[in-house]
Amino acid sequence: MGRIVGIDLGTTNSLVAYTDAETGQPKCVPGPYGDTLCPSVVSLDPDGSIIVGEPARRRLLTQPERTIYSVKRLMGRGPADVQSELKLFPFRIDSASKNVIRVLLGNRVFTPPEISAFILRELKNWAEALFGETVDRAVITVPAYFNDAQRLATKDAGKIAGLEVLRLVNEPTAAALAYGLHEKQRGRVAVYDLGGGTFDISVLKLISTTAGDIFQVLSTNGDTHLGGDDIDNLVQSHIQQDIMDCYGVDITQRPELVQELRKALIAVKHRLSENEEAILRFPLPNGAVYGTGFTRAAFEEWIRPVVERTMGPVKQALADAHLKPADLDEVVLVGGTTRTPLIRRTVQEFFDRKPHIELNPDEVVALGAAVQANILDHGVENMLLLDVTPLSLGIETYGGAVAKIIPRNSTIPASAQELYTTGVDNQTGIDIHVLQGERELAKDCRSLARFTLRVPPAPAGLPRIEVKFLIDANGILQVGAKDLRTGEQHSIEVQPSYGINESEIERMLEESIEYAEQDFAERQVIEARTESESILTATAKALTNPQAAGLSAEQRAKIDASVARLQESVAGRDYKLIRKRIDDLNHATEHLAELLMNSAVSTALEGRRLAEV
Amino acid sequence: MTSPSTATNPPLVCWSCHERTFGTHFCSSCGKLLQLPQALDYFALFEMPRKLCIEMSELEQKFLQLSWKLHPDNFVNATEQERELSLKHSSELNDAYRALRDPVGRVEYLLGIEGARKEGEHKQQAPPELLEEVFELNESLDELREAKASGGDLAVLKTRLESAEKNFQDKLGQVDAQLRVTAREWDATLQGDPATRKKIMAQLNELLNRRSYIRNLVTNVQKELL
Predict the structure, then answer these.
(1) What is the DSSP string of A7-68?
(2) A154 HSE (CA, 13 A, CB side)
(3) Counting Cβ atoms within 10 Å, is residue A281 exposed (0-12), middle (13-18) or buried (19+)?
(4) pLDDT tens, A495-512?
(5) DSSP state, A287?
(6) Alpha helices, DSSP H only, in A379-519?
(7) How sure is the predictor about A120, in pLDDT bands with cuts at 50, 70 and 90?
(8) B192: which residues sit within 8 A by CB, 6+ positions away?
(9) Which residues pair with A406 in a beta bridge?
(10) B193 vs A26: CA distance, rounded Å
(11) Cα–Cα dist A155/B25, whole Å
(12) Which phi and psi (to 5°) does residue A434 adopt?
């Protein structure tokens, strides 16, 4: 058996972590660029290979139609569900998509689990490169408020990536595990987790028993479509409108400009977490430069609606746990978006206590996943996690109403039995519709599955079929039926309403292995070479520009030397060396890049690489 | 909810070691998880008598102890059959804890296994002594809906409904108090004569029906007042 890892499959970034055998502490695995964060971006190269992470993120600007980000928003959803997302995200959905969404990258179609699987496989590669061993099992985290379909889609992604998914763990719970190990906290803890695309709030009770520590989730709530992305969208639509008003330029027609602006605005958002003011300068295609200043106060006014949307779920989770804000002993902030000062203040005021931010909010979920992976690998020794189902499970009854059979916040695994019989003589089937959600009418809840219970012909009312609905420890539904007259067990093939079936998963797994056959290191070399080619071309071209005369002899010599060293490294196969020399050349050409741009534009492009200009 | 299966003889031979076994969850001989169902009702699962007044901390302790042993996290590397059994045992444990932890759910469950839970024949029908108040309430609700549709003045109607809601909340409190009293009577006659026990169960059943009727009313009013 290979190694086991914990994976945080995030909307914006994904990470992989493991438990260090010597220290017993969880650690994140660094990628080829030394960073532990792998941008959740996937790009299909024109040569047919798949590119994941940082190099794919750069392609958002150059090849937006072949590149996808935030695919987590599409997981487990049907084409009809995502119409509102499509206005704000440049997802290109194949018009032939029926139940399952199929996304276009270039001219090929992929399901969201396939795209997520590319990210998982990349992380698997990172870990294997570090361990020098195969990784074949994983704990993957999901938003606590993910429904059955979204969880299934995540599990499918794991399978397609060639991983046995030992457990899906809720992200806030994972964070609590990481903190529990770190701080040995006790009592009642609220975890506020605002990531790139999802929001969760979980209330836990940490109990010390003679056997060990129990992390019992009391309640959870959230919104699977609320996160940093929404802040970015909000600010972006303001600015796009402003550009339209001031310059008459509609940049929404230009996907690469939309991405360019998005990137610039995210940088502004990050600067405003540290500073009181930030300036945006954005060159427009007509040669003008759009410029505007932001104060933190004004920015906070804009994003306040997003922050306020998180407070409804927070209050509901507390009410479900029968607690008041003052009853909490600790509050923990998780997710990159909680770096926003307004969010920290809002949470602190609500709970009237200073939230914990000691652990890196980007890494803490992956670290917790690694803790759980270690528990599962070695058996429950001194820590046990008791999680809950976020949404009530129900079945449709007469008139389209829903009868709740497992209430939300039930500890999982949880089950419920229902007894069915026939209404007319010799009826051979009973239709069952399973739903998830809190609303009273079936049409307002999430449809999980529809199936027909087969019944042997008999007089009406005589058959007695007991159907057992079971939510497993991953929060995923299983259904079984038993004929009470004969004692015969039926297995029920539940085809999820928005899922992909087993044979499709098999095919995707095979295809994904084909993609993966190109050896990891080999691909790194190819990517590094491609990148060096583009920077060498850009440098050569820039040096022919009259502005280049402004370089000092020393600067010019440094560029020439860096070019020569990069060319020399490209001949070899050491991709880390190539990367380093690319960085060196980027560094050496900084002044050249500045010279090439007029002073107004250069401010906006500060810190950018020559190849991107 | 359906009534749980009635008692049958527990299996005496372990599926794994084929020895005679006396365990509740685990084989007394080889220590493997045993087959379910074992004709184990929720009270028996927690090794508690069928009493309605339960010491919550004791229930929680037992729940946590059993969770340590039965949770699927313990069986990730076990055989398929054991994983399956752990899923059944731990879901049963969680279902049991969920039912017994809630005072009303506990009564409901007890009546179910005693075969004494009968939902009113006409669930929607008001208990006779509430008829008049319910009639008034429904009238006010109709008026509020009309006023909402026509954009009329809502303030007076809302105040009236709020006081009606409070009235029914009080009644709910009264039913709960009666439930507690009757629950103690039940506990006192645990070993008593069957006729008395039957009478108490009928009372409990009646109180549950009343409670669910009033609870529905309150929910409906709250929805309109939102």
Answers:
(1) EEE-SSEEEEEEE-TTT--EEEPP-TTS-S-EESEEEE-TTS-EEESHHHHHHHHH-GGGEE
(2) 29
(3) middle
(4) 666 666 767 767 776 776
(5) S
(6) 502-517
(7) very high
(8) none
(9) A393
(10) 61
(11) 30
(12) -100, 135
Map residue B105 onto helix, strand or coil.
helix
Single-letter residue type at B32: K
pLDDT tens digits, B88-133: 999 999 999 999 999 999 999 999 888 878 876 555 666 777 777 7
What average pLDDT is seen over chain B? 82
Do B71 and A472 count as a contact with CB atoms less than 8 A apart? no
Report residue A343 as tokens: 């969010």
Q: Tokens standing for A599?
A: 């002073």
Chain B hits for A483, CB-CB cut-off 8 Å, are: none
Q: Which residue of B has its CA nearest to A478?
A: B87
**ipTM above 0.85?**
no
Of A211, A375, A411, the CB nearest to B68: A211
Ranges of H-type helices in A21-89? 54-62, 83-88
Nearest C-alpha neighbor of B92 from the set B175, B177, B33: B33
B2 contacts A419? CB cut-off 8 A: yes
Q: What is the average per-residue pLDDT within B185-207?
A: 88
- Tell me whether the omega of the peptide bond preceding residue A413 falls within 30 degrees of 0, making it cis: yes
Order of strands across the sheet that contains A187-194: A330-334, A187-194, A199-208, A213-223, A383-386
Q: What does DSSP say about strands A477-483 and A277-283: parallel, antiparallel, or unpaired? A: unpaired
Residue A257 has pLDDT above 80, yes or no: yes
Per-residue tokens: B126: 């008001």
- Is cis: bond before B128, omega within 30 of 0? no
Burial class (CB in 10 A: 0-12, 13-18, 19+), B215: middle
- Of A496, A443, A11, residue with least CA distance to A229: A11
Beta bridge partners of A414: A471
Q: Which residues of A are catalytic?
A: 8, 72, 171, 193
Does the B4-101 domain belong in CATH 1.10.287.110?
A: yes
C-beta separation of A74 from A112 below 8 A: yes
Cβ neighbours around B1 below 10 Å, total: 15
Give the count of alpha carbons within 13 A of A396, CB side only: 19
Residue written as token pair 């940082």: A54
Residue A19 CA from chain centroid, whole number: 22
Size of the A and B interface in Cβ pairs below 8 Å? 73
Reported residue count of chain B is 226
Say if pTM beats, i.e. exceeds, 0.90.
no
Residue in B2, B76, B91 nearest the CB of A470: B91
Distance between CA atoms of residues A408 and A399, nearest Å: 23
Closest CA to A13 of A47, A38, A44: A38
Residue B35 has pLDDT above 80, yes or no: no
